[in-house]
Design goal:
alpha/beta; five-stranded mixed beta sheet; three-stranded antiparallel beta sheet
Length: about 180
């Protein structure tokens, strides 16, 4: 796997949602490392990416309350187990469950297997609240997909929290997973 420090030279075969991520990162002057790979649908498939970029790709879960009126994107370390009751208690919400993929596509313009913090750039009406596991928030770097699961990015966590999120008008809440 080759590491790149810029967008693909030729974006003609890339999806617009991926190119939009590179456009925004470039505009915000957020440096990143990128690798391209076959489609990876699960965290366990990302081991080679983790080793190549010297990171842990975040596990991203798209969740909602039982009434489907509040939506959450939970970023957590891939080796951790999600315990619904624990996270629900911390955010004072009834039991969280996985949200239907139609909401994911509507609010984040992302398909299953590609869920990423970068999708918040498409949530212009702030339907989705970002929850970040404390260990991810404390990490120097985080790994995510650029809204497609055929590339992965290594970003400084500080850049995501202090440049990207304010620009896309999203706040975050730290939770313990």
């Amino acid at each position: 796997m080759d590491i790149y420090h810029e967008r693909p030279k030729d974006c003609s075969d890339r999806l617009p949602r991926e190119v939009a991520v590179y456009d925004l990162l470039d505009r915000l002057e957020i440096p990143y490392e990128r690798v391209d790979h076959h489609a990876m649908m699960t965290i366990s498939q990302c081991q080679e990416v983790d080793e190549t970029l010297d990171i842990h790709i975040c596990k991203n879960l798209f969740l909602c309350n039982p009434q489907k009126t509040q939506f959450y994107l939970l970023m957590m370390q891939g080796n951790k187990k999600f315990v619904t009751k624990e996270v629900s208690r911390q955010i004072h919400s009834p039991r969280l469950s996985f949200a239907n993929e139609s909401y994911m596509e509507e609010y984040l313009n992302i398909l299953p297997g590609s869920v990423s913090v970068m999708g918040l750039m498409n949530d212009t009406e702030n339907h989705v609240q970002l929850l970040i596991d404390r260990d991810v928030a404390r990490s120097e770097y985080l790994g995510c997909h650029p809204c497609v699961n055929t590339s992965s990015l290594k970003l400084r966590t500080e850049d995501v929290l202090e440049k990207f999120l304010p620009h896309v008008h999203h706040d975050y809440r730290v939770v313990d997973v």
